[in-house]
Amino acid sequence: MSKDNLLKELEYSIVMGHLDADDEGFDGTMEGTPGTLELMEQALDEGIDPKEILDVFPAAMEQVGERFESGEFILPDMLASAECVGQAMDILEPKLKAGSSSDKGKYLIATVKGDLHDIGKNIVATMLKGVGYQVKDLGIDVSSEEVVEAIREFKPDFVGLSALLTSTMIEMEETVKLIRKEGFSDIKIFIGGAPTSKQFAEKIGADFYCRDVMDALQKVQEVKDAS
């Protein structure tokens, strides 16, 4: 198989959520065929530049995003594709030269204190890694103080905060206020989650409200392009 064909196969495998040969993919017909993990190993074994492999991820996830927005894919489909990217990145990252996966900047992400929901956050984190950002994921139930401490250590360009519960929106507000109080005025803050809105983002001093995963990626890229 040529290099171009192999990378196309890898891209298609990610789009179809086909993790490995034991997985049947979205259409139920791919079991027994090489999946994302096998194709990743094959590409590396054949000496394909890890940076060329890395370029496959955003192309694949762009297709996933388009299919999700059109209604062809639903959330579990996007999760499966994101899982493919996440595990592929685990294989690829050690092969990349230091700094090559963080050329676009650093992104700190967390679900705020009192909230244990992380599906949306995890997808955003995985997709940001896939398109070349260095991501530090603080996980769930993260206090404002923990976010600020991580900012001091990680020195991110962007901070993403997620909340799925109306009751935890106040924690999001407190976190944004503390970030600004501690003097991190240049960091762009993104918020997302079912109860949030553009109006809420403006009220608490966040820079951007993201309605979904693809909106988050688009807005980060817009900020990056404008800088």
From TrEMBL:
Pfam families: B12-binding, B12-binding_2
EC number, UniProt record: 2.1.1.13
Domain of life assignment: Bacteria
EC primary class: transferase
Keywords per UniProt: Cobalt, Metal-binding, Methyltransferase, Transferase
GO molecular function, one term: methionine synthase activity
Protein name in the entry: Methionine synthase
